[in-house]
Amino acid sequence: MSENPNEDKKVIVFQLKDEEYGVEVEQVRSIERVQHITRVPSTPVFVEGVINLRGVVTPIIDLRQRFSIDKADHTETTRVIIVSVGHMDVGLIVDAANDVIDIPGNSIEPPPEVVGGVEADYIRGVAKLDKRLLILLNLEKVLNPKEIEEVQHMEKQV
Amino acid sequence: MLEGNQYLEMFIDESTEHLQAVNDNLLKLENDPSDTIIVDEIFRSAHTLKGMAATMGFDDLASLTHQMENVLDGIRNDRITAGSDLMDVVFQSVDDLEAMVTDIASGGEGKRDVQEIVARLEAIEKGEQPAAQAEKPHEARSSDAGSAMELDDFELTVLRQSSEQGFRAFAVRVELSKDVILKAARVYMVFEVFEQLGEVIKAEPSVEELEDENFELDFQVILITKESAEDIEGKVNKVSEVHAVEVEAMEAVSSQRPEPADSGTEIPEKEERNSAMPEETSAPPVPDSPAAAEKLPEQKEEKTAPASKTIRVNIDRLDSLMNLFEELVIDRGRLEQISKEMENSELTETVEHMSRISGDLQSIILNMRMVPVEQVFNRFPRMVRGLAKELNKKVNLDIIGAETELDRTVIDEIGDPLVHLLRNSIDHGLEMPEERRAAGKEEKGNITLRAYHSGNHVFIEVSDDGAGINRDKVLKKAISSGVVTEENGASLTDKQVYELLFSSGLSTADEISDISGRGVGLDVVKNKIESLGGNAAVDSTPGQGTRFSIQLPLTLSIISVMLVEVQEEIYAVPLSSIIETAIIKKEDIMAAHNQKVIDFRGSVVPLIDMTDFFDVPRVKEEDEYYSIVIVRKGEKMAALVVNSFIGQQEIVLKSLGDYLQQVFAVSGATILGNGQVALIIDCNALIK
User: Fold this and answer.
1) Does residue B536 belong to any structural domain of this protein?
2) A22 bridge partner residues
3) Contact call for residues B391 and B359 (beta carbons, < 8 A)
4) CATH number of the domain that B125 lies in?
5) For A57, which of B327, B615, B657 is closest by C-beta distance?
6) Min distance B619 CA to chain A CA atoms (Å)
7) Between B615, B660, B661, which is nearest A47 by CB?
8) Residue B490 has what pLDDT?
9) Which residues form the domain of B423?
10) Is residue B309 in some structural domain?
């Protein structure tokens, strides 16, 4: 979580469509296989539902839909990454969770500027490693509950 | 080495109880100043409190209580009359005492500047009756108790009475040898000997100080016994590391100032002490260990508490018991399902038996967590009295059903909402005495606080016999603050208008007061109650009064539900909101202005198709027959169309997590026997 740019970061790498993303290992509680998800009505489209995670009801969001990437069916490799941000434990559905790597702080660059995009604010930075490009996520922004309200609001207006 | 905290907790609990008793009785006394029995009771509580405070070393607490005791004594002996001014001062001192106890409870030292209030109490004591002067020297003396071998009234009474029963009192001075290692342990052993010989009525330094090794080498006790001085000396000398023992008979006891009034009140305590004695003396000798030394003060504490077979349990322990039990309930559900699938009769029998037992266990655990609402209610009489004075209104508060029990977690939360409602009733509900007279009512307004059980709920009502809610005023206010539009307002029923009071930004008092004003309050009340899974409602009759009623669930953690299937999804409907289930034919459904309705026992009930309502993917074919669950919210009903009923089950309520805080029409989730999550339908949100 440290913002010191020169410090190495250990991140969990996962895949969404063709791109690789990373979340800091400190924020990840566990990686689960997909199990039965109970749909929760009247929630934004990216909220997939809730699961029973060892006795705790845990909300699950589909990261593809959260990032407006076209929906895909769950496969053998699909995983749920349980992340913990503040008081919240939330599961993120990703196409695959590949590995854990260390990335040197100096290889992280600020996110590319997107004109007027909301997308930019949940990207913490981009790490270049050899030939891989890793998008580092700002989970606080990804899981901002205000965003849920805004989305709900927008849906109501439509 | 000793856990002082243990006694501190007990001290706090008991002082709170005694203060509450003092409070209650003072209120009674105010209504009936001539009743000396009540004064006696207050005196007893104050006395015990003083004793406890002094032993625990809370001097300010002790000295204030002591002074209060003197005033009470004056009332008891008809030297002082319990007028309203006097009661104010006494109430204020009780407030001070409460503040000190609260301070102690939160880790403070219970220090507080009590000089002013003590001076006022003294003034009352002196001002009314010069004869009180005569007592002065004695009081000054005994309030110093703790530094010299002085005896207070209670101890004197005990001495006097024991001498009447053939006991003798001795002042025993024990000196330990200089190289003693475990002083407290030796003290304990010496006391053990004393307890076998008779009873120690006073120790100097106090027992607590002795246990904390807060003394040099010698200490002094007053011992009541039938043994001779030589026997005492001999037996105490047998304790190792005792250097010297001096035993001196106290013969002057009977000649001390007799105080007839005392004996009447002190006898019960004295008897309690005696009855506690056999227990102590018959206690098996305890080995010389630090842990054993703890027993002593515990017995001391018991003497002041009435004989009762209850124990105090830390609420955290009950909570963790509850949490563990919740896990068990989930596993029970799972086992039930497995055994149903396996169809093995032995397994089924065992599981059924276990289900029954855990059912019993559940009711016991839930019961353990139940507390009478009295705990919350008992602070209201004082509050109402204070408010009435402040507002120059005359108020009579009736409390009905204080013994009604509610889950502890709910109890902790309802205090503030109730305070709001009471304040609101006194401030806005009741009229000024003149207005009441003009309206042909008694000057004294009545407020009733009533609690009762009904089904799986507890209802608490706050009603007043005031002027009632002024519909026009509320409506005007609601329109001006934008809560409703003028057109809408006109079509609202009276009840709907009254309910507007619960919307934020509405207060009907013309002037803002400190008591309940600024338009915060009722909406907060409603939110709070709803967050507890309850409901708040208001009804009013112009000229006759207003009644606020709140409905609360008995418990928050385990509830009975009906599981239903909506297409292929499973939902839980709380039994508490279900009126009944039914199966109806398609033809029975009627349409009233775009809304499907059915005729249910003579009333028109709107139909809500849960498949549409929750956007459930449609996978099942429509049937000729509809399964419906009739639910209610207050008087209103709705019929939920589901695909099938699964059955009734006890479930553990779980939240959806912080990320999904507010989901429309879903009040929470639960984990089913198959490990999947089912959502609980919030029927209150379904019915507008």
Assistant:
1) yes
2) A13, A136
3) no
4) 1.20.120.160
5) B657
6) 15
7) B660
8) 80
9) 372-553
10) no
Q: What share of chain B is helix, strand, coil (3-state, %, to 5)?
A: 50, 20, 25
Cβ distance of A58 and B615 shorter than 8 Å: no
Given a contact cutoff of 8 angstroms between Cβ atoms, the answer to whether B576 and B455 are in contact is yes
**B614, B682 Cβ separation under 8 angstroms:** no
Strand partners, A89: A84
Q: Pick the most confident of B119-133, B203-217, B289-303, B556-570.
A: B556-570
Contact B656 A41 (CB under 8 A): no
To the nearest whole Å, the CA of B677 is away from the closest chain A CA by 6
User: Over the stretch B233-269, which tens digit does the pLDDT of each residue have?
Assistant: 877 777 777 778 888 877 644 444 444 444 443 444 4
| Dihedral of alpha carbons B236, B238, B239, B243, sign | positive
pLDDT tens digit string along B203-215?
A: 777 777 777 777 7
Same domain, yes or no: B176 and B284: yes
Whether residue B209 is found in the same domain as residue B237? yes
B523 is a domain residue: yes
Domain A9-157 belongs to what topology?
OB fold (Dihydrolipoamide Acetyltransferase, E2P) (2.40.50)
Mutate to test the interface with A, among B652, B654, B660, B674 (most CBs of A within 10 A): B660
Q: Please indicate, yes or no, whether residues B157 and B244 belong to a single structural domain of this protein.
A: yes
- Cβ–Cβ < 8 Å for B585, B624: yes
Comparison of pLDDT for A43 and B123, the residue scoring more: A43
Determine the pLDDT at residue B679: 93
Residues of A in contact with B661 (CB under 8 A): 145
| Whether residue A81 has pLDDT greater than 90 | yes
Q: Are residues B114 and B11 part of one domain?
A: yes
CA-based nearest residue to B599, from B642, B637, B645 = B637
Whether B661 sits inside 8 A of A145 (CB atoms) is yes
Work out the minimum CA distance from A47 to partner chain B, whole angstroms. 9
Q: Residue B654: which CATH number?
A: 2.40.50.180
Residues B226 and B201 in one domain: yes
| B665 vs A contacts (CB less than 8 Å) | 41-42
Q: Which amino acid is at B318?
A: L
Residue B642 counted as domain residue = yes
Give the pairing type, strands B677-681 and B666-671. Answer: antiparallel
pLDDT per position as a tens digit, B673-688: 777 899 999 887 788 7
Note whether B493 and B565 are same-domain residues.
no
- Each residue of B80-92: pLDDT tens digit? 776 777 778 888 8
Residues of B identified as active-site: 47, 69, 424
Same domain, B354 and B379: no
**Residue range B523-540: mean pLDDT, rounded:** 82
